[in-house]
Amino acid sequence: MPRERAWFAILLSVTALALANAHFPRIGLAPLYIPIVCAACWALGGRAGYLVAIVAAVLAVVPHLAELPGLSPALLGARMAVRAVTYGFVAAIVLSFRRSFDREHHLAARDRMTDALNKETFRERLIHRLDLAVPARQSFLLAILDLDDFKGINNRHGHVAGDEVLRAFAQGARKTIRREDDFGRIGGDEFAFLLPVHSAEEGVYFARLLHKRLSSVLAGTPHPVTCSMGALLISPDTPRDEPSLMHAVDQLMYAVKRAGKNAVEIGRAMTDRDRGTPVPSRPRVPIEACL
């Protein structure tokens, strides 16, 4: 549920319960604030959860104000304090569960070594974002990158050195891309990127810029290597067939490998009007041209 809708639902629930509790004070509806506090903590986070807990504690004792002056202010304060401690304790427990849930969810979606999205999560993100992009007429750049001669690092320096390169590359890649871009590890030394773009021209520019920056990142690792990248421009009219698109961009990357590595090749995914499968829309772009 979006945050705005969650706030509306919680405020509506608190208001309705406060009115019911005021009209029927002898029924004892105050414990029903606990599920609302739980929902606020789970959906809105710590600050909002504790705020709702305090407000609920105050509203829970408001019906007892009618008992004044027969009810001493000290007793009324004690009741409010008990409510506040109880609701606060419930909020703390729920927030602890929420943090554990978020941590496990994050770890389940990530590659443990590089903290990039794992292969399955990247695939799910690709399918989801492509489906949402249809009504918005959104274009994308889908790229697959492979480190050149990475096995040589493992053979010469050991797997510890190779892992160090992968972690350094992933850290640099996350700093290179934008917040709205997706970055995942789909193989041993293969990584994938999904970037929303406004046009084919912007996609070509991003593809070249991405390869240039990632090449710089790799050049700065303890064991410098180059990279080969295939990039596929996905227009709004392209069929959203995830396996075909991944296969097409993979073939673009392997075309770079066969042609000498250390370059980027940019292709265009054909639309229904093209009556074909995704193919390159331009010749191979050598690394010098990307600079």
Percent of residues in β-strands: 5-15%
- The total number of structural domains is 2
Find the structural class using helix and strand composition. alpha+beta
Question: Low-confidence parts, pLDDT < 50 over ≥5 residues?
Answer: 275-291
Report the span from N to C terminus. Answer: 44 Å
The average pLDDT value, as a whole number, equals 87
Number of helices: 10
CATH architecture of the largest domain: 2-Layer Sandwich
Spatial extent as radius of gyration:
28 Å
Helix content bin:
55-70%
H/E element sequence = HHHHHEHHEEHEHEH
Under CATH, the homologous superfamily of the largest domain reads Reverse transcriptase/Diguanylate cyclase domain
The main pleated sheet reads as:
5 strands, mixed
Number of strands: 5
Q: Kindly report the spatial arrangement of strands forming the biggest sheet.
A: 2-3-1-4-5
CATH class of the largest domain: Alpha Beta
Apparent shape: elongated
What is the CATH T-level topology of the largest domain? Alpha-Beta Plaits
